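thought: fold this chain, then report.
action: predict
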Amino acid sequence: MKKRVSRLGVVVVFLCLTLVSVASAADEILAKITIEAGVHKRVDTPICVSLEPVAEKIKEGSVYIRQVNGETKKSVPSQFEAGESPKLWWILSGVTEPGQKRVYELVKGSCLTEEAVELVKKDKYIDVVKDGANVLRYNYGIVPPPLGQSKLYERSGFIHPLWSPKGAVLTDIHPPDHIHHVGIWMPWTKTEFEGKEIDFWNLNKGEGTVRFVKFLSTSSGPVYGGFQAEQEHVALKAANGEKVVLREVWDVRVYDVGGPDKGYWLVDFKSTQRCVADSPLHQVEYRYGGFGFRGARQWKDEDSACLTSEGKTRVDGHATRARWCDNSGKIEDWQGVTFYSHPENFCHPEPMRIWPPEHKHVFFNFAPSLLGDWEMKPGEDHVFRYRLYVHEGKVNVEHVERIWHDYAESPDVKLEIMQ
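observation:
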């Protein structure tokens, strides 16, 4: 049996979950896949393999994988990602020690399994849900500001709430000290476009804003659930009125790892931005702008903390560079979010805007413009990749570093086509 679900152009195939068998002569094995852990311990690690070498032999992702252990072959939940370069995703489940290998077969065909991570769409937002528990909400509808505040603060295209595995809300929106802060969002602050200053961050200036345009895809599945959303960065006072300067695509996915019982979520965030105007967007050196996070309102003073990969804190972390930064605090219990910058990112290890203790509340921002001026030229893509490790309890550096190695130094994946 097989089940295919198509949502806005993305085809997700749900594949066998628990079958254990010896391969029959009728099985069409397309390739052998070998995963090598390398020098790091792997625990429930997301894995991706390019299917380009066998693309002509498959249709709509009609393949699955089996883990091979001697004569026994066990099917593994996997998920097909369509596109110019088709991919197959699965979880390297359990513990894989340094130096160990796992061997799989890529098999033509598919069979029924369940959606572990689901996307639930409402009138103005979509929720990503894992095993019935809310992980995050993307607001594609306009969210108005608090009563009495300017309509300039209206905003779409951001994440709020981000929930902890136990259900605490870890983001804040429209806090009294910074009405324009909206959970997790990514506008630029000090820019110049066609001879004018454009601030897409401080909305009350009326110079710029960011808007949701449309969904390019949505997906639910046994390995991940998420969405691709197109957004536009708009100059509100260009020469002839409003003008779209940047076209942006958010690719957000929540993996079927962790959960309330294990005390963590794992989320990948990718923003691809292209200047679609005839003139470049000049990024001017400034202390913040880019991927931002406003922590829960309860996170303040002694009930908040920050730690970077270089050992910096809220006291001395601002304007330093790091591979990752953990921001945490206490609501009833302690929770936190570790933000990872991918090694391929512009200016990695990235400089950060970290609010010092005198600001009381928690604000964090990967801010490449801290290092100086730079430019986004027409037609060029700028890709920003981040991973979020959302956890219960205070930061555990050993766990954070393990996930860093999964993200930055992923296991080696080798695909050999069967003749």
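thought: worth noting. Helices lie at 397-408.
final: tokens above.
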